[in-house]
Amino acid sequence: MVEARIQKHVDTLMERYPVLEVCRDDIVKAYMIMEDAYENDHKLLIAGNGGSAADSEHIAGELMKRFRTPRPVPEEFKQKLLDIDQERGENLAKNLERGLMAIPLVAHEALTTAYINDVDGMGVFAQQLYGFGRKGDVFLGISTSGNSKNVISATVVARALGIRVIGLTGVSGGELAEVADVAIKVPEEETYMIQELHLPIYHCLCLMLEDKFFGKGEA
């Protein structure tokens, strides 16, 4: 049975985007994989191309700082900041926010362009996943076709490292849906329409994670 705190966010998503009802179960499954990773001090690695690259950075932005809920640092850490530097520590203690570690594999221009130029363009996400990834992490691959070669290559490395794979795709799912632990396949075929539905889904995932880890009553 889905917990009420999860259900409320998913229900709101379905009310606003009824077409996503077919994705309900997979959205919840994807969320549970992410929640489990973060509960065990692991991280999320994200990749996609074009608009999906922008989505990768968008997701990281929602997770690494507040989305809707304040995320003040713990009192113990505030005190350490003040003990180290009273003036700067006070400002940092006031403004720093707790994050959920998320790394967009599209954001490291020097590394990615060097690897593309010197080694292998299709392995650019796989190389970063191999460097950043650790067993227990989660890889979120975003591909409207489900067949983006660099994303699929990254899933091979992920599975070899013991990293769970979530796919965010269009209705066909492509190869990504076949290899992912969970694939969220939105019911559209045209690229921009698929991308329009990806955004509310990952916003919902981010809201549920924030509610879990930084909601009322959380330390």
Q: Please identify which CATH superfamily we are dealing with.
A: Glucose-6-phosphate isomerase like protein, domain 1
Beta-strand content: 5-15%
How do the strands of the widest beta sheet line up side by side?
2-1-3-4-5
Number of separate structural domains: 1
Task: Identify the CATH class.
Answer: Alpha Beta
Count helical runs: 10
Second-tier CATH architecture: 3-Layer(aba) Sandwich
Number of strands: 5
The major sheet is characterized as:
5 strands, parallel
Order of helices and strands: HHEHHHEHHEHEHEH
Low-confidence stretches: none
Distance between the termini: 26 Å
Q: Report helical residue fraction.
A: 55-70%
